[in-house]
Amino acid sequence: MANKIKQFTERAIEGIHDMCYIWAKEMKATVQDEGVLIFFILVPILYPLLYSWAYNNEVVHDVPVAVVDLSNSQLSREFVRKYDASPDTKVAFRCNSLEEAKQLVGRQLVRGVVLIPTDFDSNINRMQQSHIALYCDMSFLLAYKAIYMTAVAVSTNINKNIQIKVSGNSTGREDQITTQPLAFDEVPIFNPTGGYGSFIIPGVLILIIQQTLVLGIGLSAGTARENNRFRDLVPLSRHYNGIFRIVLGKSMCYFMVYAVIAAYLTLIVPRIFHFTAIPHPGALFGLMLPYVLACIFFGMFISCMVRYRENVMLLIVFMSVPLLFLSGVSWPHSAMPGAWRAVATLFPSTFGVRGFVRLSSMGASLEDVSTEYLALWFHALFYFFLTCIVYSYQLHQARTHAISEVEKMKERIQKAQQKLHSKGASA
What we know:
This protein has helices spanning about 1-30, 35-55, 75-85, 100-105, 120-125, 140-165, 170-180, 195-225, 245-270, 280-305, 310-315, 320-325, 340-345, 350-360, 370-425, and strands at about 65-70, 90-95, 110-115, 135. The protein is mainly alpha-helical. Strands 2-1-3-4 form a 4-stranded mixed beta sheet, with helices on both faces. Strand 1, helix 3 and strand 2 (about 90-95) form a beta-alpha-beta unit. Helix 10 (about 280-305) packs parallel to helix 15. The model has no long low-confidence stretch (mean pLDDT about 80).
């Protein structure tokens, strides 16, 4: 019994020593690799600042617009006058044709075009529905929102005046009931300014953690394969004699780096740009712990598919925008087809984004996001065991290559000995 305990203790100490060796070696490789440093340090620090700065104003004012008034009626001029009076838009040019307005958009002098057709006023006089066309520059979503929402507000106001004229009411109270039968007050919650930054930035910050981790780990794996003679992910060494010590040793390096990065992205960046951020520190830590672990093991699993450093860019970079949509931030989860909802559950970012948005922007507790919390722990365990399986295969492959190389060496030695014996016999 004492011998078994002693053997177990020695093996445990050896495993911890090897794990720390792999940790130190992975950290050294990370520091020495410029590509990995870019994705682990520079991108998580600079990209959120750049993206948040672009949408820091939340709303824009006096967006230049070109108006093509083909109706030239009293009602169309009223629409243009009210549209120009809005604080969000400015009628910068009045054009005679749509082609002329298109040239202004191409020269970036205006962000959109309002086209009023020739039958705008006549349709309304005939009690028929009339339309106004909007053409918006979608390269800047804040400008699109200002142009579109202003047109909706002005058309709603004109519709009220038309309703009053045709209703035949005799009192102002009747006019009020006709135009607004149900009075309501619009109070935006969780996003008081109604800005794009507070709406989208929290999801982007969490997605950055996953994407940069996967890219950095993939680059590191590609480098390891390129430096290995047989393109194996796991090198032959007595310290790499065990799956758990390999996986845990590497993950300790990544976790040490991203514990700081995650705190920076979730605590510092939202406060620098005054985005809505009301998370409880304990709840935020509880959610980020399984999320970072899930992203690390997910990245290590994906890295086993990377043969060269460039491959990870082709696999991961283009997925950033689809993953943001699948998280449910801009595409409601209830509106997704079942197939896409199933695909979304494969990525830790789906549950990480949902949980963080509720904690940070809506003031939820960890119990309120228990579904996302448990799903992230499941992802962490699931991808941990998947990573152990693929690393076990990589270790077996490395040993197979080593055995085949030894056999080849033996064959060459035997052939050399046979040649020497044949020369000695002939002499």
